[in-house]
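To: structure desk
From: M.T.
Subject: fold request, one chain
Message: Could you run this one when you get a chance? Sequence is below, nothing fancy, just the single chain.
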Amino acid sequence: MNYLGIDVKELASVATQLNKLLANFNIYYQNLRSFHWHVRGRSFFDLHQLFEDYYNNAKIQIDQIAERILTIGHKPDGSLYKYLANANIEESRDVLQDYEMARHILYNQSEIIKIMRVVISEASQANDEGTVDLISSMLASIEKEAWLLHTWQLRRKEGFLKTLK
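Reply: Done. Structure tokens follow.
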């Protein structure tokens, strides 16, 4: 038993899933930074600002995830090689079209959402309400970001189709 009232051993699976989430968030963060720097074309202003907003939010969430792992008595991964090995998402290529960037980030978000749901399930089974609360609030935030990006894609597609008529 520790100061949380939960056996650290019972939190091992939670820490494992949190480290997986941490790895994916770090790759997602770097993809956003790269896209922010490399976006071009008529969607520049929309996506340049959107990617900056998203990576600023991701940076905060990365810190919260790492600190939660420490809070539950485990060690957060901190190496790029571990992030690349443990992440479901991949680092992006720098030069993509704006619509490819949006599609890639939306895929990153959907993978992170899946992992967050696993973390919530594991934490619930371990009676780790602190982790459930933290990740649930992050989940709501990234779901909204994904919805906004999906809406942007639909709006862009509709605008493109109008130019063809």
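Reply (cont.): The CA atoms of residues 33 and 55 lie 7 Å apart. Let me know if you need anything else for the meeting.
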